Amino acid sequence: MSPHPTRTAALWVPDWPVLAAMAVRDVPAHVPAATHDGRRVVAVSATARAQGVRRGMRRRRARECCPELELLDVDDARDAREFEPVALAAETVVAGLEITRPGLLLLPAAGASRYHGSDAALAEALVARVAERTGHESQVGVADGILAAVLAAREAAVVPPGRSAAFLAPRPARDLVHVTARPDAAVAVDELVDLLGRLGVRTLGALAALPPATVEGRFGDLGAWAHRLARGEDLRPPARRRVEPDVAVSAELDPPAERVDVATFAARRLSEDLHDQLVARSLVAGRLRITARTVEGDDLERTWRLDGPGAMSPARLTDKVRWQLEGWLTTTSVRAGRAARAGRGGGRGGERGGSPGGADVVPGVAPLARLSLTAEEVVPAGAEQPRLWGASSGEDARAHRALGRVQGILGGDAVLRVQVQGGRDVTDRVHLVPFGEDVARPRDPALPWPGALPSPAPALVPVEPQDVVVLDAAGRPVVVDARLAMSGEPATVRWPAPPEEDAPRARAAAAPHGTVAPGPGSTRAVVDWAGPWPLAERWWTPAPRRRVHVQVLLDDGRGLLLASARGRWTVEGLYD
């Protein structure tokens, strides 16, 4: 074990994602609820758990267990925003806290325990303060090392100094997932645990007994991370740490940012700058300190932990800053800050002595005049050899910065990118989101979509489908009957000429799209075609959607996706 493990307190609010969702949606506490990501249940309230609903269940299975279950969407930004009052309450007891993920805080326990008299007294003070300020029930655990503290919090226990390794030894290796900060990191840990299980390493004690060099050589950085946690050590042992100065970036917001989206533009540029500096120096960081100053002179500060693969990417850093800005600038946090100011009393309780570090952190709605990001716990990393092209060549970074500048001038919605979501036709599968934002897809593309068009997808989808006339070999219009069957094979596609007064506007509208249509009044022969693919949706409603899709290859080499609905043929996409 590390010779000087850190005495750590972990504050855990059980089922936080579903509690935050219920608070935002005003769902009463007695109503069974769960959060759902489109595929399976992610978090479950205590009421729903009592009726048999469990994490990982499919929607239908969860409904079978609890027909009155309230299913709520997953939203990481909401969870972080609503967690800020909890962090504010804990910070009035212990200074220097870190947010591992919404619902889990890590706090330095040594000095605070001495001030309060014992580890147990510190835990009681934290639980009481969070309940008093926010109304949420929480659990606190104290131990040497992060993993032991987090697992102790799940049992509301205090592990005596020097006993963390023994406390961890009999526990299943799958408990490592409780210290992960993101769903993708949890998936990687699950895969590692499954592999360890097949090799006969099923407990944390068995993992800790393996030689460190062997684990790192066989399982890489993730294996070394898991091995250190299993031994009860800190995530970065001091013996291997070289002292490195913190890396900080900052920007003056002129004009001051009154909205979260405006401040996020500056945060994105700062995140990219911070990442570039760390990569250039071959460094990685364990914590991100976010500091903001309002025009009224108030200083806001919060620290997030960055452990796990990919945690230092610009996108991940920007997400954390955006969540924190939302937490500071929302009404919920303002109310919590005012309550903290009104009820804040004496007592030190911090590592540094004096008033707690959170005593002066009172959020408000004043515009932000300055934003700073600081990478802390900086340690050396392996050097990265730049490639000739691709992400590490710098071209992607320059393009991102250019798009960020455009957004800063024109607004967040001025630059959009395409996400592929679930759906059956090409229009349904296109989801436009602001560039740089990590927005959940309304429909999961990984789910099965019976009746969906076959691959490949069109390279270009027009904003407005273009009307065409489809004729058979005899020159008759091809029509689709009530059974979605076509009257004949397509032989010709004709683009009808618009009325004379609309001709200039039609030509101007077609110009940016380049090659979607040959032009109004043009006619092209069909040399080959595929389909039809009939599709009937929402047939049980008063307004069902019934249409047929056909792929055609024209004599000029152009490939089109055509759709027929209610007697109208349109161009839905272009194949390159």
From TrEMBL:
SUPFAM superfamilies found in the cross-reference section: DNA/RNA polymerases (SSF56672)
Composition bias, Gly residues: 343-357
Keywords, ordered alphabetically: DNA damage
Signal peptide: none
GO biological process, one term: DNA repair
Phosphoprotein recorded as keyword: no
Residue span(s) of domain UmuC: 23-156
Keyword DNA damage belongs to the record: yes
InterPro entries: DNA/RNA_pol_sf, Rev_trsase/Diguanyl_cyclase, SulA_CellDiv_inhibitor, UmuC
Region entry Disordered, spans: 336-361
Function text: Poorly processive, error-prone DNA polymerase involved in untargeted mutagenesis. Copies undamaged DNA at stalled replication forks, which arise in vivo from mismatched or misaligned primer ends. These misaligned primers can be extended by PolIV. Exhibits no 3'-5' exonuclease (proofreading) activity. May be involved in translesional synthesis, in conjunction with the beta clamp from PolIII.
Family assignment from sequence similarity: Belongs to the DNA polymerase type-Y family.
Protein name in the entry: DNA polymerase Y family protein
Organism: Cellulosimicrobium composti
